[in-house]
Structure to design on (257 residues):
């Protein structure tokens, strides 16, 4: 391919103990190891948050992970687009975090994973205050799915906020995600995690909502990036659809080249 693949959703790390992968702690230890693992798959640009589990997370803890993401950007340069964390139970602190990181050039929130950071819903607590600011700043947010009421409230109350739903899921989840995308023009889908191994999934989603709303993503190092790339190559897609998924949609969403 004569274009770079952009991974919209992965989780780099500074320290080996923060590697979120399940099996390869002995072979994936450094930021260079992480970048090289993606590069072997043809992924030259990658996005996402530094994710470390803390079930009672406050913004001090999450701000430290955000700073790790900014430090990784210094290592990776233009190859990496940092995603930051917020916490809906800490509205003022989250808004200060968003404002400061936005001044530093950040345009992506997430992937957010509530179950790893001590909250259940994006719209709980001060969540609406937080996403109102994100929308006003033109940021995008990548979310791990929660429940229908929460996701629909987020999508409906912030129609100009691009919300990228992580993971197609198995067929019932995928059908619901497609329903959301039909109802809410600001909804997008990333293809990381469960789903793409079901043959024909991408053709099905493209036919339902168009390739312009699907973003390539790996969830690396939790998932194998080569399997994701091969899944896109194998599907019965036009070259334009393939390019949209592999890089054009992420490029346009985040303003990167």
């Amino acid at each position: 391919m004569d274009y770079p693949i952009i991974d919209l959703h992965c989780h780099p790390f500074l320290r080996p103990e923060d590697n979120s992968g399940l099996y390869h702690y002995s072979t994936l230890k450094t930021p260079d190891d992480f970048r090289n693992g993606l590069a072997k798959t043809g992924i030259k640009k990658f996005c996402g948050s530094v994710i470390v589990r803390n079930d009672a997370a406050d913004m001090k803890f999450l701000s430290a992970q955000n700073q790790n993401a900014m430090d990784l950007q210094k290592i990776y340069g233009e190859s990496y687009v940092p995603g930051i964390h917020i916490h809906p139970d800490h509205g003022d602190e989250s808004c200060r975090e968003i404002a400061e990181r936005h001044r530093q050039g950040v345009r992506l929130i997430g992937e957010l994973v509530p179950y790893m950071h001590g909250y259940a819903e994006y719209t709980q607590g001060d969540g609406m205050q937080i996403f109102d600011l994100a929308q006003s700043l033109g940021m995008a947010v990548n979310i791990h799915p929660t429940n229908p009421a929460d996701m629909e409230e987020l999508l409906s109350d912030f129609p100009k906020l691009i919300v990228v739903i992580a993971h197609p899921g198995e067929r019932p989840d995928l059908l619901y995600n497609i329903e959301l995308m039909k109802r809410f023009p600001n909804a997008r889908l990333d293809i990381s995690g469960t789903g793409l191994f079901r043959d024909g999934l991408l053709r099905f989603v493209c036919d339902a909502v168009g390739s312009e709303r699907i973003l390539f993503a790996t969830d690396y190092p939790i998932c194998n990036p080569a399997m994701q790339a091969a899944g896109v190559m194998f599907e019965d897609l036009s070259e334009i659809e393939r390019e949209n998924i592999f890089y054009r949609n992420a490029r346009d969403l985040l303003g990167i080249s």
Observations:
- The longest strand covers residues 43-48.
- The mean pLDDT is 95.
